[in-house]
Amino acid sequence: MSGEAAERELGEGYVERGLSLNQVEQRIELGQVNRVVDQTSRSLASIIRTNVFNRFNAVLGALAVVVLVIGPWRDALFGMVLVFNTLIGIVQELRAKMTLDKLSLLSAPRARVVRDGETREIQREELVLDDLVELRAGDQVLVDGVVLESNGLELDESLLTGESVPVAKSAGDSVLSGSFVSSGAGRFRATAVGEDAYARKLAAEAKKYALVQSDLRDAINTILRYITYVMIPAAVLLAVSQLLTHSTFDDSILATVAGLVGMVPEGLVLLTSLVFAVSAVALARRRVLVQELPAVEGLAKVDVICLDKTGTLTEGTLEFSKLIELEGDGELDEALGAFAAAAPSGNATITALAAAYPPPEGWRAEEVVPFSSAWKWSAASFAGKGTFVLGAPEVLLRELPGSAEFRKRADEIAATGRRVLLFARADRAVVGEGLPEGIRPAALLVFEEKLRPDAADTLEYFRRQEVGIRVISGDNPLTVGAVAERVGVPGAGDPVDARELPGEVEGLAEVLREKTVFGRVVPEQKRLMVHALQSAGHVVAMTGDGVNDTLALKDADMGIAMGSGAPSTKAVAQLVLLDGRFSTLPGVVAEGRRVMANMERVANLFLTKTVYAALLAIGVALVAWEYPFLPRHISLVGSLTIGIPAFVLSFARSRKRYRPGLLRRVLYFAVPAGFIAGAATFTGNAMARSNGVRLEESRTVAVIVLTIVGLAVLGYLSRPLLSWRGGLLASMAGAFVGVLAIPWFREFFQLHLPRLVVLLQALGIAAVFSLLLELSGRYMRRYIVGAEPPPHVDELGEVEQGCGSLVGAGIKEAGVDDH
Fold first, then answer.
1. Fewest beta carbons less than 10 Å away: which of 2, 12, 35, 745?
2. Mean pLDDT in residue range 188-214
3. Is the model's pTM score more than 0.85?
4. Which residues are catalytic?
């Protein structure tokens, strides 16, 4: 659209004066304003809904309500687990939301518009359709439009397309929201505002927030679902039996609830949330924002990570690589320094050149032609030193005799993905914007994208961890391949042009299996690539910072956004690297693996309790006995054999790699172990009853037997017991002996020691069933599960100081800075 066409439509003088205030008011009344609702984070309603309305809260909440209605509130203390678990999840996710919202507010851009002939700066929400927007170097384009005036205007559209090379814009060219002015200046007419703008349309497709897939959460939900099925008939049986054995209705209901609460692994749910929250705080100290607690475990499972080039492997800027002299005369260093100092700032090439060559003394520029993509060269004349030109070799050498060899060398370097410019002398001074006459080649200048200093070491870490790497970029395939090769990506020497890729998932998956580096990838292809990798059974992580990465980040198993990225990108990501340091990812992987290894061990403890609680409830109901425990007995046994040890073990170091099948492994151990513990308790209780002891003494026998077998379970899962883990087991056993030996504790927990012969029989029963537990564990591990021993912590590991420090082993192994 020309300026004349705009003036015919909007009034004479529009190109100079912009809209009138009356025209602005008319558009505001029509709703043609750039009002958008940025999705910078999850909504408050979504966070509360996810953490409040779940199966765990439903089961435990219902039982707590029953107790509160008919019994003393002290018997409903287990309901506090529900409250704490919900609050931990909500508070952590609200902290993440507030952080992202603050980042978005601080980075909110402003626009410069011409209205009634005056240039004014306004909020982006005040832009209206047909506004005349003025652009200068460094400005962000906030709405779509058509260029009316261009003075060397070049836009960086990498956040939209992934293409890092600036795009020259002339009158009549379109500009898209989300791009930035890399150099030059201009004016454009706003043609699409608000939700109609290009960047908003991309972001709108990603508005639905997808929860990160969590093996721990899925396993817990699956277990809770089946526990719910078991609890219904168990509740009926237990209630009937307790009504027959207790004198009052309230006592029978409380006994029934006590039996049912034991089936719910409430400690596992709370500890999982607590461990995730502590890990999130530890990661926050490393400037990694965890938007959803289970995301801590996400990277532990990832086996393919997709990386963008610009902003991830590179810093998004150029650096000078080398100088190849052609006809130098010894003054090139000074000439290059003077040329860089004389050229206007803002151009990435000139900035890189200035960093390599400082300005010399005694050089004074008389005339300068700034670089532009329109003519692909710049020039400067210096008093007493001559004229120098810097530009594309194919332009400067176009009509120069005998330049074929120079062009060949330049083409060979360019074919490796590097940027090549020719630095030349000229016989004549600069006149206007015409190329000076008498061009004489002096040197070829080679530039490369500046690599992140941590990129190579970080990728080496992922290779050692057997995580596949795919580099996906909208840039030129040769450029992407050159960068990938410099950081050591396997297969970087054979980059693929995405324009030649198949459009269906099956064919794309086959290509992705063989190839690792892709260029000219558009946003929809990035998303399709994620789907293709997932269809091949991979767990995919995607990193990105631009609007063009949003769709792929949303659909990936783990989305990782850079802190400097677009708001929509950070909103859909599970992790946000606030300082954009790629080297923090190994630490996240190490933390995730530590959490998963430790929580698998802890899950074995809690689910063993669930199984024996269910077995005891059903067994007691069938034989119409009093339930063998008081609620305080369950608290004592649970604290010494599960609660306290689980808390300590959950913060231990571990380098163990994640293995799929967590629920299967846990069930193969916990079900037999729970049956053995339940059978041991039932047998001990039966033995005590057969000896004619009082109810209080038979309950004490049950507590002793269950505690010993529970400690045997703890010992099996904590091996090797050579360091602090052995001390943990011994301290729990010592604490139980202390409870039995000290009268005040015996009275508090209502424990009444039976006569010696009954006590010895109880110890014998506990010893026999502990041996059965050992044999069962070995059999399952060797013949059924067919896997490694239970996930023990690393032999050199220690309990994390303060339960919050971050594992650095994986980072140090890769040589990545761990400061």
1. 12
2. 67
3. no
4. 308
